[in-house]
């Protein structure tokens, strides 16, 4: 249906301007009866959108700042690939203190989602020790030596508890900071995995010791190399993963 689906949020719903930052979706600022919101149109399945919107509702109820889904006039949280969410104020983190607050927010996310079910069709990093594909990842498309390096990094996570990870919190564009709040936005890469993958942050803001920072940094670089393969960014990230 495309953007015609926005009518399901009310007769006055209208797009106002495109927003930058997303690559897999078409994202716009919209007005809902005078209220500013953000709408995202993509090709995710209903099962995937159900997982994401249910997660955001849960986090919102628990008091973690998130772009909360706004229901259609008949109460649905998505329609024809379209999700409408609350607009989030703020700018990207710029200081070490900002990033420490991001780390605190991530740890709260991890605490609130222990035991959360996996996103439909996705795999965790340790699942990929035995599986070759999962959503955006196809290890068969990578050179065998690259796969060995990635799996060696992920093998260091085996046996650890899992929870929801945001998936890309080290990108300043995925965080909005104000004096009072830190809000994680763009949950496209969220999944159930080991929390260390979220904590390889600028300035070592999560306060990891040397060994744990190495584990987190290697595993996160391997994930991004695999999920983005084979663009220039993926090649650069793979170069940061030590040979197996």
TrEMBL record:
- Residue ranges, annotated region (Disordered): 1-24
Ranges where the Aminoglycoside phosphotransferase domain occurs: 17-211
Pfam families registered for this protein in UniProt? APH (PF01636)
Q: What is this protein called?
A: Phosphotransferase
The record lists the organism as Nocardioides islandensis
